[in-house]
Structures are given as structure tokens and as C-alpha cells.
């Protein structure tokens, strides 16, 4: 491994950007956070002296280049609305052109299991065919292919780091977030079913130190890697543990594929979830032995500890909300 220059987190304000930023700060490294909204970036990173805040317009090539100027590594975390996945490839094309023009040397895409399609058998190693049968999988595959094709071009090295579904304290866009909020508020948790199939989740803060290490590991570039969670667990088991921490019995409301179809008649997001529901019935479980062989042992938070941290964060948020709005809390 070698020392490296400044890292830029593009699409930094989300949960993954915040855990990677925390790992960079913990390593004493300055970094740049890039996003559309200065307000969101200030809220997330304004108190960190290591953070430089830059806004961009990802539709404007000049803005992309300016946001990347002076960086050695870009970590790409840019999301699009779930019903606008067709935007992923052209957005990546513009970004790669901009970062290359700015002289960036390394580019990391934080990816998903979508490009694999259905698992031929678990756990899945990096040699598994990428054969997506869904529109979202095809868009993510096209995005990945652009990144990998850019490797070795104009001085740029690239890699893709694939993560499973994630969870953690205060992470609203997690499949499991409803469990922690339900347990903290003593209400029914809303989940996407089925809930009794073993599924892999990564405790997202565990990803931060791995990404930080990859920014200074030149030999990692030119391919994709897997970062796995702490084994598998069912959503019902997560609920059982979270509600037990609250001293309550689990209360669940589960939406399976049929209900998602019905809800999708009225809610575009629910309609988009139907296509990817195969991952709930046929999960993809990642094998990251190749990555551990490259960078050494990876610290993984156990499900028991991760569930406790996530529940405690949800309980603290519920208590703060009750203090801020006691009338609503009493009515509930």
C-alpha cells in the first residue's frame, strides 16, 4: 500500500458517503464532499475540519471537471430515484469524462449485486456471470462496464466494490430501518417480504475503513471486488432482537410481491420494488475471500451488536422527537 492524495466523495450526503468520510477523518486524511445541495453537505460534514464542501451540477461537464480538480481519487456514490435508473449510464459517462479531464488517478464505484441477476449458487464469488434479468440490473451493469472500460485510459485506474443490502444507525434507506423505528416507537414495523429467508446485510460503518484502504491500494484496480456482511440472518430474526431490546414482542406488517403490485397501482416506488423482489426470495450472498486476501482481515460488526447500535439510534431519535413535539408523542 502507498500514501495517497486527496479523496473526493461524489454523492457524499447519503449514508455510504458519511461512513466513508468518517473513516477518512479517522485516518487523519482531508477529503472533499461533492453534492448538489450545499445545505445537505453542511449538515452532514460542516463540523469536520477534514472536509472540503463543493457543490456540482452532474448534468454540466464543466461543473463535474471543476468538482474533481485536484483530487487523486474519486469515490462515486451518486444515486438516482428508483424509477429513473436509465439515468445511471449517461451520468457515469459524463462523470468519467470530467474526472479524466481533471487528472484524477483513481476511481471507485460503490456497486450492488443487481448486475449478477439470479445467483447460480451461494456464496457468489467475483467469477459469477453478470446476467441481469431486470431493467435496474441492466442499467447498473452498463454503469459498471463504463467504469471498468475506463481503466488504464488517460492515466485513470478504476474498480468496483460490490456491497450487499446495508443497515446501521439512522440509515433510513435500509430494508431494516422500519424494524428499528417500529421497535423504538412501539409500533408495527413495515417490511418487504418474505421475512423468513436468510439474507445478507452489511453493517454499513464497516465499509468505511475498507474503502479508505482501497484508495491507497494501487493493485486493487482494474476489476471488481466483493465486501460481504457478517453472514446471513432473516428479517424476522432482526425484528425479534430489536423488539427484545425494547422489551416488546415484534409486530410486523409484511408486503410481499402481490401486495407490492397492488400498492404499485397508487405508489410509483412500490411499483419499482416489484422487479427486484426476487432478491428477497432468492438472495445473493457475497464471498469476499479475494478482498481479504488482498487487504487482510476485515472487521465485521456482528448482527447482535449492529442491531443494538441501530436500535439505540432509533430510540434516541424517538426520544428527541418526543421532546421536540410532546403533544404528538402523548397522542401516539
Describe the structure.
Helices cover 42% and strands 16% of the residues. By secondary structure, the protein is an alpha/beta fold. It has a domain at 7-167 and 206-226: Rossmann fold. A 7-stranded parallel sheet has the order 3-2-1-4-5-6-10, sandwiched between helices. The chain has a 3-stranded mixed sheet with strand order 7-9-11. Helix 6 (177-185) runs parallel beside helix 8. The relative contact order is 0.13. One of its GO terms (molecular function) is aldehyde dehydrogenase (NAD+) activity. This is Epimerase. Residues 10-208 form the NAD-dependent epimerase/dehydratase domain.
The level of helicity is: 40-55%
**How large is the share of residues in beta strands?**
15-25%
Helical element count?
14
Distance between termini? 54 Å
Please state the second-level CATH architecture of the domain at 7-167 and 206-226. 3-Layer(aba) Sandwich
Mean pLDDT, all residues: 94
Question: Secondary structure elements and their pairing?
Answer:
Blueprint: E1 7-10, H1 15-26, E2 31-35, H2 38-45, E3 51-55, H3 61-68, E4 73-76, H4 88-101, E5 106-111, H5 135-149, E6 157-162, E7 165-167, H6 177-185, E8 189-192, E9 199-203, H7 207-214, E10 223-226, E11 232-233, H8 235-245, E12 252-255, H9 257-264, H10 268-275, H11 278-281, H12 289-295, H13 303-324, H14 326-331
Parallel strand pairs: 1-2, 1-4, 2-3, 4-5, 5-6, 6-10, 7-9, 8-12
Antiparallel strand pairs: 9-11
Helix pairs in contact: 1-7, 3-4, 4-5, 6-8, 6-13, 8-13, 9-10
Amino acid at each position: 500500500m502507498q500514501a495517497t492524495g486527496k479523496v473526493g466523495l461524489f454523492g457524499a450526503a447519503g449514508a455510504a458517503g458519511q461512513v466513508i468520510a468518517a473513516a477518512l477523518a479517522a485516518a487523519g486524511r482531508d477529503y472533499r464532499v461533492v453534492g448538489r445541495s450545499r445545505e445537505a453537505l453542511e449538515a452532514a460534514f460542516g463540523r469536520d475540519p477534514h472536509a472540503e464542501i463543493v457543490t456540482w451540477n452532474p448534468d454540466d461537464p464543466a461543473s463535474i471537471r471543476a468538482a474533481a480538480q485536484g483530487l487523486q481519487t474519486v469515490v462515486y456514490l451518486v444515486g438516482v430515484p428508483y424509477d429513473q435508473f436509465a439515468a445511471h449510464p449517461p451520468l457515469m459517462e459524463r462523470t468519467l469524462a470530467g474526472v479524466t479531464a481533471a487528472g484524477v488517478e483513481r476511481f471507485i464505484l460503490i456497486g450492488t449485486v443487481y448486475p449478477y441477476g439470479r445467483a447460480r449458487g451461494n456464496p457468489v464469488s467475483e467469477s459469477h456471470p453478470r446476467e441481469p434479468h431486470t431493467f435496474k440490473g441492466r442499467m447498473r451493469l452498463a454503469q459498471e462496464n463504463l467504469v471498468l472500460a475506463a481503466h488504464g485510459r488517460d492515466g485513470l485506474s478504476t474498480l468496483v466494490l460490490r456491497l450487499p443490502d446495508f443497515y446501521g444507525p439512522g440509515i433510513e434507506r435500509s430494508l431494516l430501518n422500519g424494524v428499528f423505528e417500529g421497535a423504538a416507537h412501539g409500533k408495527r414495523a413495515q417490511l418487504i417480504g418474505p421475512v423468513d429467508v436468510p439474507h445478507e446485510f452489511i453493517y454499513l460503518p464497516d465499509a468505511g475503513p475498507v474503502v479508505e484502504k482501497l484508495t491507497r491500494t494501487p493493485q486493487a484496480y482494474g476489476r471488481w471486488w466483493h465486501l460481504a456482511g457478517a453472514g446471513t440472518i432473516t428479517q424476522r430474526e432482526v425484528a425479534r432482537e430489536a423488539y427484545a431490546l425494547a422489551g416488546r414482542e415484534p409486530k410486523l406488517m409484511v408486503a410481499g410481491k402481490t401486495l407490492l403490485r397492488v400498492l404499485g397501482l397508487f405508489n410509483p416506488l412500490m411499483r419499482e420494488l416489484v422487479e427486484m423482489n426476487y432478491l428477497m426470495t432468492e438472495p445473493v450472498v457475497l464471498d469476499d475471500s479475494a478482498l481479504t486476501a488482498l487487504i487482510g482481515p476485515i472487521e465485521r460488526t456482528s448482527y447482535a451488536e449492529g442491531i443494538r447500535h441501530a436500535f439505540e439510534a432509533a430510540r434516541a431519535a424517538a426520544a428527541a422527537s418526543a421532546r421536540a413535539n410532546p403533544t404528538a408523542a402523548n397522542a401516539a
